[in-house]
Amino acid sequence: MKPLYSRLRDLHLYAGLFLCPFVLLFAVSTVLLNHPPRSAPAKAEAKRETPVEIPAGEPGSIPHARALLQQLGVTGEMDYVRHNAKSGRLLIPVSKAGREHPGRGGSQRQDRDD
Fold it and tell me: For residue range 24-42, what is the model confidence (pLDDT) as tens digits?
């Protein structure tokens, strides 16, 4: 009969050989998921300037943002509306269902003469 050391050594060898493919598969999938292959560079966002009539109400409010988007013909779901009074910017992120990366459609600069 084999001594205990020899049995444990064989058990360790066969357990390692059995588990090695799973560990390698896990390592490869982890690298692929954390470092996806580089795709084509993203297209530059098209920017356009459109004159709009500033609606009455507080800038940055939901009704104000909806009125601006309606004037611009932008459709989709609004995210959190951000108004920066110091720089005179109003950011309205809009996303549409089915798009992989929602863009910044509806992001507008608002200059006020106060």
Answer: 999 999 998 888 777 766 6
The answer as to whether 41 is a domain residue is no
In this structure, is residue 85 part of a structural domain?
A: yes
Whether 45 and 104 have beta carbons less than 8 Å apart is answered as: yes
Range(s) of the domain holding residue 91:
76-114
| 3-state DSSP of 32-64 | HHHCCCCCCCCCCCCCCCCCCCCCCCCCCCHHH
Which of 15, 16, 17, 11 minimizes the C-alpha distance to 3? 11
Q: Which residues pair with 84 in a beta bridge?
A: 89
